[in-house]
Amino acid sequence: MEVLTTKINKKKLVHIDYLYYKQKNVKIGIRWVCVHKGLCDGSVTTDDGINFVLKFGDHHHKGNTDLINTERAKCIMKNAAKQNYDIPSRIFALNVIPLSNESRQLIPKEDSMKRTLRR
Ligand SMILES: [Zn+2]
Known about the structure:
The chain has 119 residues and is α+β, with helices and mostly antiparallel strands. 35% of the residues lie in helices and 30% in strands. The chain has 4 helices and 6 strands; from the N terminus they run E-E-E-E-E-E-H-H-H-H. Strands 1-2-3-4-5-6 form a 6-stranded antiparallel beta sheet, covered by helices on one side. Strand 2 and strand 3 (18-26) form a beta hairpin. The longest helix has 18 residues, at 65-82. Zinc ion binds next to loops. Zinc ion (ZN) is lined by residues 18, 34, 36, 40, 42, 59, 61. Keywords: Metal-binding, Zinc, Zinc-finger. GO terms for molecular function: zinc ion binding. It comes from Macrosiphum euphorbiae (potato aphid). It holds the Pfam family FLYWCH.
């Protein structure tokens, strides 16, 4: 399991090949729902420390590693930009070039991504 932090307090969970949004805290831990919510009922409930899956609701589709790699790259780029490690075009180049073609197609166009990174 892997947690991606998109913004302050905005988390996404990667579990097997699926990506989830945090939905809410529940009595036994945290409930996460599939990013394709509305089309899919997939969900997981983890403990508060996000170490164990306590409940799992099945998906109506296959997992998508390309989507996960894209999300991970976007998070890394945003965090790198926030910490001013590098200029946006270098952050973009370093993180997008290693992705597969499929993942790269899911990344926003370079100009709009760079605009996001400058914020
Ligand atoms: Zn799903």
